[in-house]
Structures are given as structure tokens and as C-alpha cells.
Amino acid sequence: MAEAPEGSSKRRRAETNDSPDLSSLQRSSEFWFSDGNIVLIAGNTAFRVYQGLLSRQSQVFHDMFAIPQPQDAEHIEGCPVVRLSDDASDLICVFRALLNGTNYFPRGTRTPIATIASLIRIGHKYEMLTFRDQALKVLRELFPIELPGSFTTFTTYLEDSPVLMDEADTITVVNLARLTDTTSILPLALYGCCQLQQKLITGVTREGRHEELSRSDLLACIEGKDRLALARGRAVNSIFVRMKCYSGFGQACSINLQNITRLALDYATLKPPIAAALDSWTGFIDYMLEHHKPCEECLSALRLREKTVRRNMWKSLPEMFNLIVEGWPENCDE
Ligand SMILES: [Zn+2]
Predict the structure, then answer these.
(1) Ligand 1 midpoint to CA 313 (Å)
(2) Region Disordered: which residues (predicted)?
(3) Distance between CA atoms of 179 and 154, rounded to whole angstroms?
(4) 46 C-alpha to center of ligand 1: Å?
(5) What phi and psi, each to the nearest 5 degrees, are found at residue 203?
(6) Ion ligand 1, residue ranges at CB < 5 A
(7) Contact yes or no for 126/186 (Cβ under 8 A)
(8) How many A from CA of 312 to the centre of ligand 1?
(9) What separation in Å is there between the alpha carbon of 242 and the centre of ligand 1?
(10) Rounded to an integer, what distance in angstroms lies between the CA atom of residue 148 and that of residue 279?
(11) What is the pLDDT of residues 2-48, one digit of tens each?
């Protein structure tokens, strides 16, 4: 009989005494070493790997393997057996990092979110802190506490990121943040969830693993969507409405400003997702210059307003989800 952690590295669950049903097991084609000295079973996949390597990386595995085994304990090909409740795909990612010496975050390539999630889940559960923390660092950088300079829309922000993911995967990111108590990731990740329509409810499936938001995060997003939509409307108002030209170009400029304002209101109300409160208006303003160019002074004022409004939007992002995040920018009114 072997003992494996369940859910938390601090909590243990005694495994059953059932003999391994070898006929239903599939040996991992990638991680079955003939001189391995422990067999780990996850789902229907069996891995024959090395106790010493796992023990060095993980105090949880170290403690697990140190427990004396009874005479009638499960064995496969002479190796003691440990049954784990993890997904086999999660273990494969960690074994690749551990046994293949793979650099998981090489420059110039995009790491799939499923890989990052596996490293965090297994790293967290088995206290393999190097893997967990390296993967969390990638998410912290992608979901930071400062408004990223490269952010124009959430979709393009993710498309240009070092992580291979789309908006639906922010559900996984939220769950990883909750698992590891990494609050700083949550505001932008929940913002990403608010850009979803049906998938906000139905969830996302990657490599056979299905992720949905918890009920409380789902409720926070439903409320957040409304708040973001209202904030987007206020942003348009703050950037464009009541612009007056005080330069010598007076009337011609004012007409252009009125046209820009009218089109901005149309754009904001007609173009989904209406919860895209953080979207930059720089592209819109640039586009307007072709036919409705204001004077240079008013153009500078518009750009400054846009910058200030988006900074303030970022400042209020945690509040949209009733979060308090240590280190989040407090005062962006300058
Ligand atoms: Zn003007």
C-alpha cells in the first residue's frame, strides 16, 4: 500500500489495498525506465521513474517514499506502486522538466498554458517549488500589477504574449491564482474572463482537462461585467465629451471634436465586448485623424485624457471584482 497526497501537500489520504489491475494500465511511452525504482500510477497511466530524483525535488515525495511498506504492498516488476490522484498529463510535464532537463521557458517560443498549469499544480501539491515558482513568475509577468505598456486590447495582448493561450484560458489562470493564493494575478485574469460570453459559464478544455470558474468567481465576473461596461461608458465620456478648443483653430477644430465624440459613442455602444473597459483608444484617435483631425493642442489633450482615464481604470480594476491587492497602484490621477 502506498500513500499519496490529496489536494494539499499537508494532507494525506491512505490509498486502497486493491491490487493493480495491470491489464487496464498503460505504461508511459516517455517515462518508463527499466532501471526505475518506483511506479507511479495516475489515471490509467503508469510511470516507472526514480525515487531519489523525486525525493530531492519534493519533500512530499521524500516523506511518502520514507514510509515503510508492508509485505503485501502493491508492486509492479519489483517496484513499489504509488497511486496518485493527479492527471497523467500534469505529471508528464513535470517529468519532462525533471528528467529531460528541458528549459520550459526558452526565449522566442511560446509556452502552452497547459504546461504552465501542470507545473504549477504539481509543483504546488508536491512542494516542487522551483517548478511552481518559475511557472508562476511567467503568469505574474503576463498578469501584472501595473498596466502593461503593450496592452491595446486583451486579445492582441495575449496573442503577443510568451504564453500560448486565449481569453478562455484566463479561467485556468484564475483557478491557478486561487490554488496558489497569488492575488496579484486575479484582477487582469478576471478581466479576461469578463470578455467571454458562453465560455464564462461552460468553461474551457485543454488536453483533456476541463476548467470552470468557481461559483464565487463566476458571480464576481457577472457583477464585474456590468461594472466594466459602465466604466467603459464613463471612459468615453471622460475622454471625448465636453472637449472644447481654445486655440486659434476654434470652430473648425470644434466641429471635428464633435464628430470624433459622436463616433466614439457609436463605437463604444455598438462594438462588443462592451466590458472591454481597458482597451486603448489610441488606434481610434489615430484613425479619426484621417477625416476629423483636431488641432494639435486638442489632439494632445485627447491623448492625455485617454492615458489618464486608462490608468484610472487600471487603478480601479481590483474593485471591479471586490479584490484588495497588495502593491496595486493607488493613485494614478496625475
Ligand atoms: Zn482644437
Answers:
(1) 26
(2) 1-24
(3) 24
(4) 71
(5) 85, -170
(6) 245, 247, 253, 294-295, 298
(7) no
(8) 25
(9) 12
(10) 12
(11) 445 444 433 333 344 445 566 788 999 999 999 999 999 999 999 99
The number of angstroms, rounded, from the C-alpha of 234 to the middle of its chain's C-alpha atoms is 27
Q: In the prediction, which pLDDT does 82 show? A: 93
Q: Contact 11/76 with Cβ under 8 angstroms?
A: no
Q: Is the separation of the CB atoms in 229 and 277 below 8 Å?
A: yes
**276 CA to centre of ligand 1 in angstroms:** 28
Ligand 1 center to 148 CA (angstroms): 30
| 241 Cα: distance to centroid of ligand 1 (angstroms) | 14
CA nearest 291: which of 320, 255, 256? 256
Q: How far apart are CA 66 and CA 52, in angstroms?
A: 11
Supply the pLDDT for residue 249. Answer: 61
Rounded to the nearest angstrom, the distance between the alpha carbon of 226 and the centre of ligand 1 is 34
Written in H, E and C, the secondary structure of the chain is CCEEEECEEEEEEECCCCCCCHHHCEEEEEEECCCCCEEEEECCEEEEECHHHHHHHCHHHHHHHHCCCCCCCCEECCEEEEEECCCHHHHHHHHHHHHCCCCCCCCCCCEEHHHHHHHHHHHHHCCCHHHHHHHHHHHHHHCCCCCCCCCCCHHHHHHCCCEECCHHHHHHHHHHHHHHCCHHHHHHHHHHHHCCCCHHHHCEEECCEEECCCHHHHHHHHHHHHHHHHHHHHHHHHHHCCCCCCCCCHHHHHHHHHHHHHHHHHHHHHCCCCCCCCCCCHHHHHHHCCCCCCCHHHHHHHHHHHHHHHHHHHHCHHHHCCCCCCCCCCCCCC
What tens digit of pLDDT does each residue of 267-295 get? 887 776 778 999 999 999 999 888 899 99
- Cα(194) to centroid(ligand 1), Å: 36
pLDDT in the model for residue 98: 86
Q: Where along the chain do its domains lie?
A: 3-88, 111-216, 229-320
Q: Is 68 exposed, middle or buried (0-12, 13-18, 19+ CB in 10 A)?
A: exposed
